[in-house]
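Students often ask what a holo structure prediction actually looks like on paper. The answer is less mysterious than it sounds. You provide the chain, you provide the ligand, and the output is a string of discrete structure tokens encoding the 3D arrangement of the protein together with adenosine-5'-diphosphate.
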Amino acid sequence: TGTLTLEGVTKQFDTGTVAVREVSLDLAPGDFVTVVGPSGCGKSTLLRLASGLETVTRGTVAVEAASTSYVFQDPTLLEWRSALRNVELVGELRRVPREERRRRALEALELVGLTGFEAQHPRKLSGGMRMRVSLARALVADPDLALFDEPFGALDEITRLQMQTELQKLFQLKGFAGLFITHSVSEAVYLSTRVVVMSGRPGRIVAEIPVPFAYPRP
Ligand code: ADP
Ligand code: ADP
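The corresponding structure tokens follow.
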């Protein structure tokens, strides 16, 4: 499980803008692929097509995953719920029994280093901690496929480096396939097993570069 295949995907919006043209991409279990490229070259659109949030104009998107999660740059946390209850929400929506739901949420918060902060409300947390809650919420359901739209783009440099290290650990531990958008080439090289470079308007994939010192695949 945990595969994503895009074949000859083109997206033209109702406005007439062609955001991506003829894009093909393969993600297998153990792949962590980053997409880099200038603003407006269609990276977000590509991710939204992969997630099913947008429909393709031409081409095909095939996802094989029991569960997919999506992490945005701006963590959409529920401000009136504690960190724990934000992470528990996923289990609530899936009707997971209360005790299991709580156990898994506590475990996920521990994985992202938030033990001790379970009862805090999001507005009291720093940007990095909010991103950690968002990561815990994304990973609590053990997704086979995780999609990241520039999640660390708004964080300060030090927090960003910490989050990169933690995400890499989580990836090694959990073994989901990942597709990760970033503006930062160093972030891409650090995190991924493969870097995809997009360019142009409409955006196309102009290079795919395996990262030679990629960590071992699960
Ligand atoms: P990136 O993520 O690389 O910055 P986007 O995928 O956000 O690029 O945008 C690619 C192009 O598609 C841009 O020209 C953008 O204005 C356009 N675009 C994105 N979303 C929409 C939309 N919902 N409707 C119309 N045009 C869009
Ligand atoms: P980024 O550059 O960080 O990828 P954008 O600011 O381009 O993000 O886009 C943010 C949101 O606005 C996305 O959901 C995208 O689909 C939407 N969007 C971008 N351009 C347009 C547009 N021209 N018309 C409508 N929606 C758009």
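The pocket of adenosine-5'-diphosphate (ligand 1) is lined by residues 13, 15, 17, 19, 37, 39-45 (CB under 6 Å).
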